[in-house]
Amino acid sequence: MSHRLIRSRLELEGIELPEKILNQTLDVLTRHESIRGFQKRPLPKGVLKAILTAARSAPTSSNLQAYSIIVVTDEERKDRLATLSGNQGFIREAPVFLVFCADIYRLKYVTERQGYRFAAETLEMFLLAAVDAALALQNALVAAESLGLVSVPVGSVRNDPVRMSEELGLPDGVFALAGLSIGFEREGVRRGVKPRLPEQVTVHHEQYSTEHLEEGLAEYDRVMIERRTYDGRRVSIAGEPEREGVEYGWCEHTARRCTRPETIAASASLRENLRQVLEQRGFSFR
After folding, report:
1. What's the CA gap between 54 and 45, in Å, rounded?
2. Predicted pLDDT of residue 233
3. Over residues 47-53, mean pLDDT
4. Considering only the top CATH level, what class is 32-191+271-280?
5. Long-range pairs for 195-202: beta carbons < 8 A, 24 or more residues apart
6. Cβ atoms < 10 Å from Cβ of 30
7. pTM
8. Where is the Nitroreductase domain (predicted)?
9. What is the pLDDT of residue 127?
10. How big is the chain by its Cα radius of gyration, in Å?
C-alpha cells in the first residue's frame, strides 16, 4: 500500500492548533524525521558554530555542564567511526558527525584543582552527565533542522565503547553517549514522519495511568502493520520457531528486541557489558 509522504506530526495525527500559537519552532519540532542519506556537501560558513552554540545553550543540572561534544569532520576518522557504529554508511556521507559525551573528567579535574577529593562517584552523577549530554544533542538537532539541514541521532556509538574511546581520545570519566550526523539530505531518502504511540499511552495527567494502554497499543499496532513498517526487519529469536497467527507490528517487534539485552544493539553482546566498561572508564553506580 502506498502512502503520501507526510512531513508533519500535526498533519499525521490530525492535530489542529490555534493559528496564533503556531510558529517556526513548533513547525521544526513536529516535522522531525531521522534522515539516513546525505549529500557530499559541506555546511555553509557559520552553520556549525551556530549549531554548537545552540547545543551549549541547553539546560544543565546545577550548571555543572557535565558533557563534551567531539566534532568529527575528517573523512578517515568518520569512516572508522562508522565502522565502529554498526557500519552505518550515512556517518561517512554526512559532512559533520558530532559525538555527545557524558563527561565527569572535567568535574574531577576541577575538584582536585581546587584541593578537594572528588566523592561524587555515584549513579546520580552518571545520570546527570547523560541527561546533560542528551539535552545538548537535542538542542543541536533542533538548531540544525531549523537551518534547513537534516540529522539523525546515532546510539550505536555505544556498540564498542572501548575502541570508540580510543578513536576519540577520551580520558577516563568521559563516555560517548550518542552521535549526531548532520548535513543536507540526499534526494529520495525521506519516508515521512513516523507514527508515534498514541498520546494516551505516553502522556499522563497528574498520575501514571494504564487505563488506555491496551487500546492504544492495539491502535498503534494496526497503524504500523498497515504501513508495513517492519517488512524485512523482523527480529529472530534463537531457538524459537516463528509464531503462527501473530501479527508482526510494533508490539511483537518491540517484545522480541527486549527478550535479551543484546538484541537491542545491532549484534549480539555489543552492549551487554556496558556497566563493566563504564566502571573501568571512571564511572560509578553506587
Report:
1. 16
2. 87
3. 98
4. alpha beta
5. 195/12, 195/220, 195/223, 195/224, 195/227, 196/9, 197/250
6. 18
7. 0.93
8. 31-183
9. 97
10. 21
Residue listed under C-alpha cell 529469536: 237
Strand ordering across the sheet containing 150-154: 67-72, 96-103, 174-183, 150-154
Which residues, 6 or more positions from 194, have their beta carbon under 8 angstroms from its beta carbon? 33, 229
- CA-CA-CA-CA torsion sign (231, 237, 239, 245): negative
d(CA 56, CA 206): 32
Any idea where the domains of the chain sit in the sequence?
Answer: 32-191+271-280, 199-264
Pull the grid cell for residue 162: 572501548
Give residue-wise pLDDT tens across range 113-134. Answer: 999 999 999 999 999 999 999 9
Question: Distance between CA atoms of 132 and 107, rounded to whole angstroms?
Answer: 13
For the chain, the average pLDDT equals: 93
Residue 12: the pLDDT is 95
Local confidence band at 261 (pLDDT 50, 70, 90 cut-offs)? low
Phi, psi of 115 (to 5 degrees): 90, 20
Q: What confidence score (pLDDT) does residue 286 get?
A: 81
User: Cα–Cα distance between 195 and 197 in angstroms, integer?
Assistant: 7
Q: What is the 3-state secondary structure (H, E, C) of the chain?
A: CCCCCCCCHHHHCCCCCCHHHCCHHHHHHHCCCCCCCECCCCCCCCHHHHHHHHHHCCCCHHHCCCEEEEEECCHHHHHHHHHHCCCCHHHHHCCEEEEEEEECHHHHHHHHHCCCCCCCCCHHHHHHHHHHHHHHHHHHHHHHHHCCCEEEEEHHHHCCHHHHHHHHCCCCCEEEEEEEEEECECCCCCCCCCCCCCHHHHCCCCCCCCCCHHHHHHHHHHHHHHCCCCCCCCCCCCCCCCCCCCCCCHHHHHHHHCCCHHHHCCCCCCCCCHHHHHHHCCCCCC
- pLDDT single digits (tens) 203-220: 999 999 999 999 999 999
